[in-house]
Each structure stands twice: as structure tokens, then as C-alpha cells.
Amino acid sequence: MPLDCKLLQIGPSLPSAIVLHYEKSWSFIYIYIYIYIYIYIYIYITMLFILNFSKAWLINTVCHEAL
To answer: TM spans, by residue (predicted)?
Structure first.
């Protein structure tokens, strides 16, 4: 691990700060993953609803025009 050796040469407080930063960033990464999954599911359900609604609207208009 050459990067860790360089960081240890710079100073003892810096690696601990970087470790804390990485722990915080990992928790933020998990939060971002949860938000991303939630938004993806929300958009998927919304798109299904819009597609079903537009399909029903299209069928209604076509049937009304045919009648």
C-alpha cells in the first residue's frame, strides 16, 4: 500500500482524518444508494402508471374515433 505509506510519512493525524472521512463517505454512499433505489422505484411506478394511462387514453380516443 504505497499510498498509506506516503500518508503515514506526512503525519499521524492525517490518516486518521482520512479514515474518518472514508467512514463518513461510506455512510453517505449507502444513503445515496438507498435514495437512488427509492427514486428508481418511484420513477418506475410512475412510468408504469403514465404508460397505462396513456395506453388507456389512446385506446379510448381510437375507439371513439372509430365509432
So the answer is: 29-51
**Contact (Cβ atoms closer than 8 angstroms) between residue 8 and residue 19:** no
Q: Is residue 55 within 8 Å of residue 47, measured between CB atoms? A: no
Q: Where are the domains of the chain?
A: 2-66
Tens of pLDDT along the chain (67 residues)?
455 555 555 555 555 666 666 666 677 777 788 888 888 888 888 888 888 887 777 777 777 665 5
User: Residues 14-48, buried b or exposed e (16+ Cβ, 10 A)?
Assistant: eeeeeeeeeeeeeeeeeeeeeeeeeeeeeeeeeee
What is the value of pTM for the model shown?
A: 0.42
